[in-house]
Structure formats: C-alpha cells, structure tokens
Amino acid sequence: MTLAALFPGQGTQQIGMGRDLFPRYPGLVEEADDTLGYSIRRLCLEDPDGVLDRTRFTQPAVYTINALAFRHLADTEEVAPDVMLGHSLGEYNALAAAGAFGFADGLRLIAERARLMDEVRGGMAAVTGLTEDAVRDVIRSGPLDLAAVNAPRQIVLAGPRRELDAVTPALSEAGAAAVTPLPVSGPFHSRYMAPAARRFAEVLEHGPLGREPRVPVLANRTARPHRAETMAAELAEQIDHTVLWAQSVRHVLAGDPDTRLLEVGGDGVLAGLLRQIRRERRVTDESGVRAPSRR
C-alpha cells in the first residue's frame, strides 16, 4: 500500500502548538532560533507580542512545527512515505522531508517568503457547498480569484476584504453552505501577490534548490511531481496561482486508490478535505463519470 504524507499550511497555527515536540528536538529548535533570530518556542507557546497570526511569523512557526512532527513520526513509527504533498507553505515541508533541501535552508526560504507575502494586504475566505464552476459563475471576471481548490465543494477565494464581504450574499444565494473568512493577513495565491512572487523568484534563483527529491513531491502549481530544474519556478508561481490541492490528491489516488494518507502536524483540517475527495472518487468510479477538471 502506498503511503502519502500530507503537510498543512497557514491557518493551522494556534498558541500551544509544539508543546510536546520542542523538548524532543532541542537541536532543531536551536537551529530554528539561530536562523530566525528569535525563540520559535516562545512564539508558539506564549506569543507574548501577539504576532503568531501575522504572516511573517505564522509561516516560520507552522513550517517548524510540521518539521518537528514529521521527525517525531519518522523516529517513533518509522514512517517512510512513498509520496509527499503539502498545502501552500506545507509544500516546503514536503520538499525538505524528501531531501530536496535541509531544514534550515527551507526555513530561510520560508522566512523570506513570509516577509514578502506579509507586505500585501487583503483576505481569503473558504466557500463550502459549491463546486468550482458554481463559484466561478458568481465571481466571474471580478476582483476575486480562486486561491485554492481544496475539495469538490470547498473553494477558497482571495482578494480585497471589502470584495469578499460584498460577494458573500451572492455566494449564499447560489447555494453556499458557508463562507468563512480565514485567519490570514493577505490575499494569497491570487493576482495581488504577483509582485511578491516576482521578488521571491529572485530569491529562489540563488537559493538551495537543485537536488531531486528522494520520493515524489507534488507541486501545488501543477499537481504533478516536482523536478529539480523547474522547482524554483513552480515555488515562485505558487504564491500568485491557485493551489491545486484536490487535483494533487486525485493524482495520488489515481496511482493507488488504497493509498494511506497521513496528515503530519496541523489540526486535522486536511483529513476532512480528503474524505470529500475520496467520496467524490467513489461516486465517480461507480457511475463511470469522469471527475471534473480542476484549474
């Protein structure tokens, strides 16, 4: 049976995360502190300055907790995934776990990515109960973008906060069960992040990329395995393009429908998305209808 490791992204942060992990891996914690210039443990456990939900601090924190959680799984359960994928910043954890770069190198990239993304203001909202096509019909060619296709009926929008507020009634009228603002500070994975993506591409040109992952790691940008020669471009483009999460999971399940999907770290949010995708796949397989394409 294929084992796939899944790493969550921003939005899973909470005060107290990593409490049991920090004492187990003092070397990695010290490496994180030296890389960031502040105490990652204090940020995650106490957040004395109230900045854990600020992007430039959130992303390094989530990356570190994901890395510690994976190390713990590898040490205690001898987990050896056959394929890996991560949602947004979780993609960096997947690449690090697969040996594409080291923990500290990945953290340096995340810290710079977070700094650039933190400069852009806006918001995101998860739309539950509508298909991708239905959401597109509502937003049409307006000022909002599809930031992520997480599941057959969970789509994330990004853009100016006032526009997200304004479109909520139309989404509800179209049949959305809920439109939930996300705890992020910017319109990630949308056109508004293009300047940050361009600047981050320059960072990646001189970054620690170049090693092929030991196992396949699916890119959010393409829902296909990363290759060393295109990794930098795909990571930069991820910032201002749709996260193809549902399509990535489908790609894994197409190779082995019985794949065991293991969420690393986080709060179980990916598990709910996986259940939706598996349900859709069962219905599709039984009816012989091809799953709709996801862009």
UniProtKB/TrEMBL annotation:
Q: Which UniProt keywords apply?
A: Acyltransferase, Transferase
- Looking at the UniProt entry, the stretches that span the membrane are none
Q: Which residues form the active site?
A: 88, 189
| Keyword set includes Transferase | yes
Q: Which GO terms describe its cellular component?
A: cytosol
Its family remark reads: Belongs to the fabD family.
- List the InterPro entries hit by this protein, alphabetically: Ac_transferase_dom_sf (IPR001227), Acyl_transferase_dom (IPR014043), Acyl_Trfase/lysoPLipase (IPR016035), Mal-CoA-ACP_Trans/PKS_FabD (IPR050858), Malonyl_CoA-ACP_transAc (IPR024925), Malonyl_CoA-ACP_transAc_FabD (IPR004410), Malonyl_transacylase_ACP-bd (IPR016036)
Record's SUPFAM superfamilies?
FabD/lysophospholipase-like, Probable ACP-binding domain of malonyl-CoA ACP transacylase
GO molecular function term, any single one: [acyl-carrier-protein] S-malonyltransferase activity
Q: Name one GO biological process term.
A: fatty acid biosynthetic process
Q: Residue limits of the Malonyl-CoA:ACP transacylase (MAT) domain? A: 6-293
Q: Tell me any Pfam family this protein matches.
A: Acyl_transf_1
Q: What is its EC class?
A: transferase
What is the protein name stated in its UniProt record? Answer: Malonyl CoA-acyl carrier protein transacylase
**The keyword Acyltransferase is annotated on this UniProt entry:** yes
Which reaction is catalysed here? holo-[ACP] + malonyl-CoA = malonyl-[ACP] + CoA
Q: What is its EC number?
A: 2.3.1.39
